[in-house]
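Appendix C reproduces, verbatim, an entry submitted by the partner laboratory led by Prof. M.T., so that reviewers can inspect both the input and the predicted structure.
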Amino acid sequence: SEIRRLLTENVSAEVAEATRIVFGGSVTETNGPNLIKQPDVDGFLVGATCVKPGTFRTLFGIVEARATYLSEYKHERELN
């Protein structure tokens, strides 16, 4: 949220909204679902997790589900 706030104040609200913010800390199957629920986390920058195919697929699914939800939510708001 701090990154978006700084972008809004120093650039513009449009740029802040369009900027994708990825979490670059330690992401696992355990903490991934909670991290992606944060309103200003748009994805993950994964490291060692990439070597574990099952874990990586799970994290990919988590982010993909959020992207689908946000896309549908945005479309619904545009219709109303």
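The first strand starts at residue 22 and ends at 23. Additional entries are available on request from the coordinating office.
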